[in-house]
Amino acid sequence: MDTPLYDIAILGSGPVSNTLAQLLAQIANTPSRILLLRDERPENLDATALDPRALALNQGSRVLLESIDAWPDQAADILTVHVSQQGRLGRTLISHADMQTPRLGSVVTYSALHERLNQSLQITGVTVAGGPPALITGQDDRGITIRQGQQTYHARLAVLADGQAQAPLTEDEKEAAARTRDYGQHAILATVHASNPLPGRAWERFTRQGPLALLPHPQRHDLYALVWCQPQAQAEALQALDDSHFGQALESAFGLRLGTLQPYGPRHAVPLRLTMRQRTLRGRIVTIGNAAQTLHPVAGQGLNLGLRDAAQLSLALRDWLRANTPCGTPDLHDWLMQRKADRALTIGITDLLARSFSTGLSPAEHAGGLALLGLDLMPTLRQPLVRHLLQGLRI
Ligand SMILES: Cc1cc2nc3c(=O)[nH]c(=O)nc-3n(C[C@H](O)[C@H](O)[C@H](O)COP(=O)(O)OP(=O)(O)OC[C@H]3O[C@@H](n4cnc5c(N)ncnc54)[C@H](O)[C@@H]3O)c2cc1C
């Protein structure tokens, strides 16, 4: 292999790859030696611009994105979260005041975040190449070879942030015992109009079929972003309803806390799966973000976790990047250990929440309701759990 021209090549076109590129540019002696390889086929650009996701980002993610001047102009604050269980007594109200933070989180749209990240990327000096999906074709003791279309690139380290954790596992990865679970659920994503909005409040309701979240929408105070998880067949039946009947079905699952609810614009359904790759470092290849793990959307943790992957990786690479050693590899052992703990805890909480309320088994369901009641009664238990969901493991 030729002497690598780039210190780090990042493969990915989503928020995690873009954030990492900008964090590395802030610490690198020569930001142009950071290469960001993006999938810029028209279908991927269209899918990103039209992505229906609204993302609840915690305060830690917001501070991180603000540090690279990538926080979108339109964001809705979450000041309280109301958690309840359909048909049970359990409920809890989590307030930003209890947690002593200015807000519990903020909601932004995936497309607005993407656009803002692209703007801030422009002045960083990072080398950006667009084309078909980039592919790692080899690695040796000098570096990594990557192909994108007709172009070949060499880098000393590659970071896979291509969001492909849902892709079939290779034989190598199967050996590394990736943890996977098909929830058998689809998330229905929609924007809904509420006749009696309650600004600043997000709602998480656990139903027998799956969790249902309504998040304050960044574009208007009377709109909410709906994430309604349902077994596949029920999700398909709901998708087949007209807007008026869909609104009625939603009201009967959620109640009338926000008045009447009506869909506003198109609805989408996405399948839900847990994938946690055990091996996120293979030689000179590091895997982060959704490429390392995809989570159930309950409690909105996927991107928050991916941004922590990126933030801690940039810190772990700082000395290596500044020393500019031509052939050495960075020591990422401590980073791996930090990420292992944070990933396991966040994935564990999310997976438990996703399953324990919708197993259809009464004792498990009841335990879920009791756990919620317990959280309401026991601040000592609630504080660390909520703080983890707010910030994740601190460095
Ligand atoms: C319904 C739903 C709701 C969610 N809600 C929340 C929430 O409220 N809060 C939260 O924190 N998270 C949430 N998430 C999770 C969040 O969307 C993901 O964790 C986040 O998008 C991951 O970002 P990423 O950059 O790692 O990957 P992605 O967003 O998947 O982006 C990867 C990009 O790289 C491109 N790509 C693929 N292959 C290549 C290649 N070879 N070379 C270059 N580019 C490539 C892909 O096409 C894609 O554009 C939700 C997810 C879902 C499904």
Protein described:
By secondary structure, this protein is α+β, with helices and mostly antiparallel strands. It has a domain at 6-75 and 110-179 and 273-391: FAD/NAD(P)-binding domain, CATH 3.50.50. 36% of the residues lie in helices and 30% in strands. It contains eleven helices and 20 strands. Strands 5, 6, 12, 13, 14, 15, 16, 17 and 20 form a nine-stranded mixed sheet that branches. Strands 1, 2, 8, 9, 10, 11, 18 and 19 form an eight-stranded mixed sheet that branches. Strands 3-7-4 form a three-stranded antiparallel sheet. Strand 9 (135-139) and strand 10 form a beta hairpin. Helix 1 packs parallel to helix 4. The radius of gyration is 21 Å and the shape is elongated. Residues 361-370 have low confidence and may be disordered.
User: Which percent range describes the beta-strand content?
Assistant: 25-35%
Strand segment tally: 20
CATH architectural type of one domain: 3-Layer(bba) Sandwich
Major beta sheet, specifics? Answer: 9 strands, mixed
Global shape: elongated
Could you state the CATH homologous superfamily of one domain?
FAD/NAD(P)-binding domain
* CA-atom Rg in angstroms: 21 Å
What's the number of helices? 11
The ligands found in this model are: flavin-adenine dinucleotide
Helical fraction: 25-40%
Distance between the termini: 36 Å
